[in-house]
Amino acid sequence: MPATASRPLRRDAQRNRERIVAAAREVFATRGFAATLDDVAHHAGVGVGTVYRRFPTKEALVEAIFADRIEGVVAVAEQCLAEPSAWDGLTRFMVYACHTHAEDRGLRDVMLSLGMKKRFPDSGDRLETVITELVARAKDEGTLRTDFEATDVPIIFTMVSDLAGAPAGAYDRYLRLVIDGLRACPRNADLGPALTRDQVIGVLSGCVPPVRPRSSAAQ
User: Fold this and answer.
1) Could you tell me which of 87, 95, 77, 82 has the C-alpha nearest to residue 184?
2) pTM of the model
């Protein structure tokens, strides 16, 4: 009999995997990349060895629990690109993404991390393309200020999502304030040059923790 590439998991192993994934979604949503596999094991009610048998690294677990979530964000972005109003499409996506990041710290960290496109190359490329098109389309429509660039989008996401723990109402207040500041207006002050891609990467690296802390090879 030819050897198969992989065997189906036993029922108990499959149940453990599902418990681990469900627990990881909850732990990462609250703690983001600061969460450890020990945290996940404790929340799932299993030994950490069980977690490591299913997911040998935290990177593997991150990829397993966020692939579908990121694909969902990309799908919404593509829907927004089809909006008749370019301004409505851009701002709808920005509001959706900011709220999603605020509700799930792990999703926020993975989407704004340096490894986003390495872990999810197809979704990352599609999202970058759609955001660029959303910005260009709104500029062509004349509703978006001309000095705003697609590279400004992840910086805004980072800034606003950090307000998720602020007093009630503050989050939406400042998100709307930022969006209103993007409107094209004859009295718009000059923003100066936009950050380069490398500069944006540098800023995000200081705001989003790495999946694996440099001090711990185990996580």
Assistant:
1) 87
2) 0.83
